[in-house]
Design goal:
By secondary structure, this protein is an alpha+beta fold. The chain is 29% helix and 27% strand. The strands form two sheets. A two-stranded antiparallel sheet has the order 1-2. Strand 1 and strand 2 form a beta hairpin.
Length: 75
């Protein structure tokens, strides 16, 4: 891989095969972590992934644990 100038920064162009292996797509946010001469790539969760996880939590709170607006305003 070659390092190139991109504005005032440096950039690395990732080969398509590596992008596929990592499951990356345009717009993804990644973090590179150096580990004893190696790099780990950590992809930050995509907004749609986070929303899907949140949707999976709907209706999971027992009725006795649910908060009501009236009770919150009484405090």
């Amino acid at each position: 891989m070659q390092i190139a100038k991109w504005g005032n920064s440096l950039a690395v162009r990732l080969p398509a095969d590596l992008v596929r292996k990592l499951g990356l797509k345009e717009g993804d946010q990644i973090e590179l972590v150096a580990d004893a001469g190696h790099f780990r790539v950590i992809r930050q969760p995509r907004a749609e992934d986070v929303l899907q996880q949140l949707r999976g939590l709907r209706g999971k709170l027992p009725a006795a644990e649910r908060l009501s607006r009236d009770a919150a305003h009484e405090r």
